[in-house]
Specification:
By secondary structure, this protein is of the alpha+beta class. It contains 5 helices and 6 strands. The protein has 2 domains: about 35 residues; about 100 residues. A hairpin with a 5-residue loop joins β1 and β2. The radius of gyration is 21 Å and the shape is elongated. Bound molecules: zinc ion.
Length: about 160
């Protein structure tokens, strides 16, 4: 690794630990030429995952974007760390499909599956946007299916 201070390429690793998000290894390095210390991150390179919208446009899957949608739905109801985990689980579930391109619909369904386990209100909020609810009867239907498929914990 080239030293950012002097440009030399000889260094030694003085510390190595998982980064806070768990997806990377963080290494502290020391330049053998000038002694400057710097940090590098090592990550697994994942193949690109593409998402096709209903309009037909295709863009790269973005975990932050998924997380944003979940945060909106779960506002004030679910801890941030839980949502981080849920967004990671959405990505993992999509990658497990083993395809290069998924529909935005599949992304939405995975988000719903995660929110269903986390918080019923967040789930229904997300579903109302995602499934384009037109009236109270749509909420009623969704709540009914929620009660049927996911009995409250401890019941
Ligand atoms: Zn140096």
């Amino acid at each position: 690794m080239r030293c950012p201070t002097c440009g030399a390429s000889e260094d030694r690793v003085v510390d190595s630990r998982p980064a806070p998000d768990g997806d990377a290894i963080r290494r502290r390095r020391e330049c053998r030429a000038c002694g400057a210390r710097f940090t590098t991150f090592e990550r697994v390179e994942l193949p690109e995952l593409l998402v096709r919208k209903r309009s037909g446009t295709v863009s790269a899957f973005s975990r932050p974007k998924v997380l944003e949608g979940m945060q909106r739905a779960a506002k004030g109801r679910v801890a941030g760390s839980e949502l981080d985990r849920a967004a990671a689980a959405v990505e993992q579930a999509l990658r497990t499909l083993g395809v290069r391109e998924v529909d935005s619909e599949q992304v939405g369904l995975q988000v719903l599956a995660q929110l269903r386990d986390l918080d019923p209100v967040a789930y229904v909020r997300f579903a109302s946007v995602y499934k384009d609810f037109q009236g109270p009867e749509d909420f009623e239907k969704e709540l009914h299916s929620l009660r049927k498929e996911a009995p409250p914990k401890g019941a």
